[in-house]
Design goal:
By secondary structure, chain A is α/β, with parallel strands linked by helices. Chain A is built from 11 helices and 10 strands. Classes of the chains: A alpha/beta, B mainly alpha.
């Protein structure tokens, strides 16, 4: 029995020492970042940052299942005692939520000067970079492929379409964006029409793209990275930017967003990391990686699948309005889901 | 002295590791804006949707438990009480589904039975449609979770069988055949273990979230997840988790009562 006590005592001592050490080394040459962008894509960027600046990055990644809600809930819970310096969000709506909850602080990076203003918070609480577009993936065997999200309510596609659960992720943002553009009445009618047309609901965009590739459904609205990496794997799908006509609605653009945490323990390093993420070099890397993200700086070199943002007809939205609208749309969508 | 210290350490560990998160969850769920409030619960209970989800969860868990027990018990007996050739090999094969995350099993079934799956693509389109329609829903969930949790019953049955004293079986054989021995001696002896296995299967199914999510059968844990990650409402999320905890405690209580 005594042995057990000794073991416990030693374990406790080691744990306390360990904590003490990590506390000390955390002081000057480190930066803590919470990351919602997929780890496969974000980790190489952060490793390069470590190599180039000598600042050690402590990164906390979201797992695929918890999908960005892990970091969000953590940041909100730690508000009065911040542990993170920087949050790399995979979309700006979450950045808006954090702004309103008083979790973030303003910082205008010199590197963001030529990123278009629509992709930045006017007060500097977040800055967008490397974007995904919301696109249609269509199975290659489908004739007369849909060119607009209105296909979801078209009887021709009854029971042939799938969409990711609109309560989560970028689908939530896009639905809220439609509400800000169309107004409540038209947007609600669209959602009702979609339901009436027998749309299937998947748990996430990647799953939707896989369903379309497997021929279970004809098309789905997903993120461009879900489409591109499946096309690179040789899956039989095609990517279509929706509503590109001269009077069309345009494709909804979802930039990554980086923000400074209010009360960041390593303020200077946090700013260096934010500047790094907002550089052209980072955008180029994320364009060539399998996430194929669209650079927002003009004049960044591109792989063939990625269209420059200037040549895409972009849905004209104010991300702050979209975030505000989500407060109304979430309960409605919960009902829509029948939950 | 040493005994008391060990006991105290065990108790502290239990409280810290096991009960602290549950307590934190309960406290969070009854506090809103710094005051005591049951709003999270009244919101939960007043909505008919939640009751439908609870019903779904009970239905799914019951069917999976009954079917896994009905097949797992005889399978366990077959694999440990007979001289079936390749018993070890079969035991290994039957354990594999338990080692694979159930979500992966669900996706694999989709690749077999989806509308253009490896098997269904050889059927007529309307039949393929019907098969994939069954996969998405209660039947598909039952199929996947049954195959995942079958080994739990099978393995526990096999372990319990090993503890049965062979002398009792031999004595029984003097007056009855194997069926009689099984019915009169072996099964009553291993029944507590089998019930434990059934209980485990029920609880594991009740808390399962990935498979019903993929196969679109709405169950109760979805509610907690939705509150947490679509609304960032920790209070409502934990309030929604409380019924899960209540069910678990009730079942463990029932087990204690019956297996005394």
């Amino acid at each position: 029995m005594k042995k057990i006590m000794v073991v416990i005592a030693i374990t406790a001592a080691v744990a306390i020492l360990g904590l003490g050490c990590s506390g000390k080394s955390a002081n000057n040459k480190t930066v803590t970042v919470y990351v919602s962008e997929d780890q496969v894509f974000s980790e190489p960027i952060l490793k390069d940052f470590e190599k180039e600046t000598g600042i050690k990055v402590k990164a906390v990644y979201d797992t695929e299942e918890a999908k960005s809600t892990g970091s969000m809930n953590r940041l909100i819970a730690e508000k009065s005692n911040p542990q993170a310096d920087v949050y790399w969000a995979n979309e700006p709506i979450r950045a808006e939520v954090l702004k309103h909850k008083g979790v973030s602080a303003p910082y205008t990076s010199p590197n963001a000067a030529d990123i278009p203003n629509v992709f930045k918070d006017p007060e500097g609480y977040w800055t967008g970079f490397s974007a995904r577009a919301r696109v249609l993936v269509v199975n290659k065997n489908v004739k007369d492929k849909p060119q607009s999200i209105s296909a979801y309510t078209d009887p021709r596609w009854k029971g042939r379409a799938v969409i990711a659960n609109p309560l989560f992720g970028t689908t939530t943002s896009e639905v809220a964006a439609l509400f800000t553009i169309w107004g409540d009445e038209k947007a609600k009618a669209f959602m009702a029409g979609m339901k009436k047309n027998g749309v299937a609901v998947s748990t996430n965009n990647g799953e939707s793209a896989d369903f379309v590739a497997a021929g279970q459904y004809d098309f789905s609205l997903v993120d461009s990275d879900d489409a591109v990496n499946r096309i690179r794997q040789g899956k039989p799908i095609e990517m279509i930017y929706p509503d590109q006509g001269p009077t069309g609605l345009g494709a909804f653009i979802v930039p990554n967003a980086v923000l400074l945490i209010k009360g960041a323990p390593h303020l200077e390093n946090a700013k260096i990391l934010i500047d790094y993420l907002l550089s052209k070099a980072t955008e180029r890397k994320l364009a060539f990686a399998d996430c194929a993200q669209i650079p927002l700086h003009p004049g960044v070199e591109l792989p063939p699948e990625v269209k420059p943002v200037e040549s895409i007809r972009v849905m004209k939205v104010d991300y702050a309005d979209v975030a505000a609208k989500m407060v109304d749309t979430q309960p409605m969508l919960k009902e829509w889901m029948g939950l | 002295m040493a005994r008391r210290a060990t006991l105290a350490t065990a108790a502290i560990l239990l409280v810290v590791i096991g009960l602290a998160p549950v307590a934190a969850m309960l406290v969070k769920s009854v506090v809103a804006d710094g005051h005591f409030s049951l709003a999270a619960y009244s919101g939960l209970l007043s909505s008919g949707h939640e009751w439908r989800l609870v019903n779904h969860s009970f239905l799914l868990s019951t069917i999976v438990t009954l079917s896994a027990t009905a097949v797992g018990l005889p399978l366990g007996i077959l694999l440990s009480k007979t001289d079936l050739p390749f018993r070890r090999f079969f035991t290994f094969i039957f354990i594999i589904p338990l080692l694979v995350p159930p979500y992966i099993t669900a996706v694999s079934w989709f690749y077999l039975l989806g509308k253009e799956g490896f098997l269904t693509r050889h059927l007529s389109p309307s039949l393929a449609e019907a098969v994939s329609g069954r996969l998405f829903g209660l039947p598909g969930c039952v199929l996947v979770l049954f195959s995942t949790f079958l080994p739990v019953v099978m393995l526990l049955t096999m372990t319990c069988l090993r503890t049965v004293n062979p002398r009792l079986e031999e004595a029984g054989r003097l007056v009855a055949g194997w069926p009689g021995v099984l019915k009169g001696i072996v099964i009553p002896l291993i029944l507590p273990g089998v019930l434990l296995a059934a209980m485990l299967v029920f609880l594991l199914t009740f808390g399962e979230f990935g498979v019903p999510g993929f196969l679109r059968y709405d169950v109760f844990p979805v509610e907690s997840f939705t509150q947490f990650s679509a609304f960032y409402n920790f209070g409502a999320a934990t309030a929604a988790a409380v019924p899960l905890a209540v069910v678990t405690f009730l079942i463990i209580g029932a087990e204690k009562l019956f297996l005394r």
